[in-house]
Amino acid sequence: MRIPQELVDQMVDHAREEAPNECCGFVARRGDEAVEVRRMVNEAASPLRFEIDGLAAYRAIDAFEAAGHELGAIYHSHTRTEPYPSQTDINFAANWPGVEWVIVGLDRRGEATVRSYLIEDGHVREL
Ligand SMILES: [Zn+2]
């Protein structure tokens, strides 16, 4: 999926606003193009993990589909580690086959590195 710079910037802004806690959200896609970033609440409010409320997730995905889009990616931030999926991420991703995994890494100075992965059967592949 191609993610326009404007949407990448929206995810980075979100990560900076929530830091040091992890942010999280969804990216809608139409075909092979990302079209919308939707912020979600990190129910865990933690710098080490994120948790999305099930009903809120259902509603967000429903809204994407109503607009003729589909869920393309789940994004979240890493504020203390490299932007690489943790074991927790890999376990979580098992519930979301085919959905890309975008991680916004923030270093100490707030500089962002954004990477996208596909996680399938516990294997991580960078896109
Ligand atoms: Zn993570």
Short descriptors:
alpha+beta; Cytidine Deaminase, domain 2; 35% strand; binds zinc ion
Task: Report on this structure.
This protein is 27% helix and 35% strand. β1 and β2 form a beta hairpin. The protein has a single domain (5-126), classed as Cytidine Deaminase, domain 2, CATH 3.40.140. The chain has helices at 5-18, 54-66, 87-93, and strands at 24-30, 33-40, 70-78, 100-106, 112-120, 123-126. The chain is α+β, with helices and mostly antiparallel strands and 127 residues long. Bound molecules: zinc ion (ZN). Zinc ion binds next to β3.
- Coarse morphology: globular
* Separate helix tally: 3
What is the beta-strand fraction?
Answer: 25-35%
CATH classification class: Alpha Beta
Brief summary of the model shown:
The protein is an alpha+beta fold. The chain contains three helices and six strands; from the N terminus they run H-E-E-H-E-H-E-E-E.
Give the helix/strand layout.
Blueprint: H1 5-18, E1 24-30, E2 33-40, H2 54-66, E3 70-78, H3 87-93, E4 100-106, E5 112-120, E6 123-126
Parallel strand pairs: 3-4
Antiparallel strand pairs: 1-2, 1-3, 4-5, 5-6
This protein binds zinc ion.
The site of zinc ion (ZN) has 4 residues, from strand 3.
